[in-house]
Design brief:
heterodimer; A: 294 residues; alpha+beta; Alpha-Beta Plaits; 2 domains; B: 218 residues; alpha/beta; 6-stranded mixed β-sheet; 7 helices; 34% helix; globular
Amino acid sequence: MRLSFITKQTFINLWTARVPALIAIFTIGISLSIVIGMSLLGYKAINSFDLFQDKFEIEVFLQPDLNREEILRVQNELASIHQIKMIHYISKDEAARIFKEEFGEDIFEILDDNPLPASFNIKLYKQMTHPGIVENVAHRIEVLPGVDDVKYHKEILILIEKYFRLFTFVGTGVIFALLIAMNILIKNTIKLSVYARRKQLAILQQLGAGSFFIRLPYIFEGIIEGALGGAFAGFLLHIAFRVINFSVQYIFDISLAFSPLIWTISICAGTIMGLLSSNRAAKSFMYLFAREDY
Amino acid sequence: MMIDCRKLTVNFGNGEGIRNINATFKEGEFTLLLGPTGCGKSTLMRVIFMDILPSKGHITIRQWDSRKINKRQILRLRREIGIIFQDFRLIENLSVFENVALPLIMTGHSRRVVKDRVEVILDEVGLLETWHQKAGSLSGGEKQRVAIARAIVKNPFLVLADEPTGNLDPEAANTVFELLRKINALGTAVIMATHNYSLIEDTDYRRIYMENGSLVDL
């Protein structure tokens, strides 16, 4: 009986404040789709950055005519640098083989000799692939006896680091701003709803109704608005994915997969948002407005 | 003793309120609280259902003492007291049935218990036929009968009626007063604030007079 009464009250509240409720649902939908879209992009960016860090290598070219002992000495020196995770030696012959694999031509047939130097391919620990650290490591290697040259993709590393930081900073800011905006919107809708029914609140309190009994219809209202907003966000993301896939498929060989998990996440996120915001709003406004008339 | 007021004072800061009231109310008693408008009758009523707490002194209602009571206990006290106001205080967009059922719904009674109890009470106040109507569509007299039904549906030990006939024509006022007498005859204590002297002139109920926030003659 209690639940059916509260459910009925919830729908009466929603119907009474239907315009603000609709505005809240639409705005939650748009904000949540941006938040989830940005989070997905962020997730993809982190994955790509991770992949880049995994593949990042420094090539250490050795001076020609080093003997086996001198090569071993360089290798030991490299091994003593704690930022280095893996060292792989590439002999002159292996370098020629890689050249043939990559360019399809035998270097001996072109030049009658193998001018390719022996080298070490070095991988750093993931957390050491920041431009400053890499540069420092490269400088240390450059001055080692027997080392001719050190090469790595410095510009790409700096560029990725810079944009990744910017993206993280702006993305986090936007997500927080939108979450705050959604919270304010739900709070305002509940505030209007509570204000419209302030006499009822005072009556219920005088009859001895507990705070939770009074708050429940408003909490349900917030949950419904949040869940509908979440569903709308899922719909917007679905459309956005289709548009993006349609526009970029002629340019890039990629496609974004819209999984039902995104629907679930957006509805759950909206529901949780609605629950928390409406509970807080109902709690703070029910005592504020209840006394105004009686 | 059902209610015991000791040096009860409520100060609103604008000169209004009640001052130094010492009074007791017995179980099952019908008490008439009399006096001109603004003399403090409503304030005393509000203190009894702990809508406001005393500035000085204290009041004890059965096991509830204003000096020790907390929010949860205030709600429990209100669930055992029926309150009737001059302006009815019904939820107008709810039906007569729902308004009367509210005190039972909020305390978690089953659908069957609520239905049976509300039907009996609505029959007692003569509104069984109008159970489905919205409270907002009723006349003043009918609204007050709904308010009485809502007050007694939970079997209270005390009914507080603050000027229950103030907004009613003489005939409706008489019906409401008769209902309160009937409730009292069944053992429920009633404290009724009124300045409708013609309504009560033939009764021998206990009378308490108030003036400027104080009791005049006990």
